[in-house]
Amino acid sequence: MKKSKLFGTLLAVGAAGILLAACGSNSAQSSSSSKSSEATSSMTKTINTARFTGSFQGDNKMKVAGHVSIKGDKLTLTDFSTSAGPDLHVYLAKGTDPKSGVDLAPISLTKKTQTFSLKGTNVKKYSDVLIFCNKAHALFGHATYNADANMATTTDTAASLTGSFKGQNGKQVSGDVTVNGNEIDLSNFKTVAGPDLHIYLSKDGSVDNGAINLGKISLTDANQKIKLPAGTNIKDFKQVLIHCDEAHVTFGAADVK
């Protein structure tokens, strides 16, 4: 009888142990599943809130300048300017063909800051923001956008380029320039006066063909700092230009290397 009771007790203890082990396994699996779900949710959140930026350049002899930022379901233009034209619209497109993309809305010719809704639009399907004249079927300008520098490594922040200005087209411009991953520094800078002088990063000495208009410069400050758009790869550029947008004349240029 004692042996029978002892055997029964051992069986009960063994069964309880198996049940506890099973519960522990299920708990671990549940915890692991929960962590996996949290990680997936976190990844999704990161993807959905990715920010893209770019800078405009003119096309077809039109002048378009400024920056574009895409975050969440909003596209924002800042420091924006464009040549006048009828029925100008902003597009997201694959390259510079509006037929490959989506017409977001008409734009204002005068507002420097403008915001457009991107609800229901997958921005990762496209690569460029276009300013397009629907009436004339002409591309005025475009901006290729990349992931923000905080999320991508397109900017080589360790590298820097330097050079010295020389006057162009009979104009007097002098001083030194340093280009790094975040900004352009002008030192001992001087220029003859002119209306609407802008500073450009240029690939080939022109303000077209992928040049970036960084904005207006001061005619009087000897030392100036100009911020570069996020994602700018400075190694793509060979010159810094001082250009009069109103007269379409380059006042000065600095070869940088």
TrEMBL record:
Occurrences of domain DM13 (ranges): 54-146, 163-257
Region forming the signal peptide: 1-21
Keyword annotations from UniProtKB, A to Z: Signal
Pfam family name, one: DM13
InterPro entries reported in the protein's UniProt record: DM13_domain (IPR019545)
Domain of life according to the entry: Bacteria
Name assigned to this protein: DM13 domain-containing protein
Upper lineage: Bacteria, Bacillati, Bacillota, Bacilli, Lactobacillales
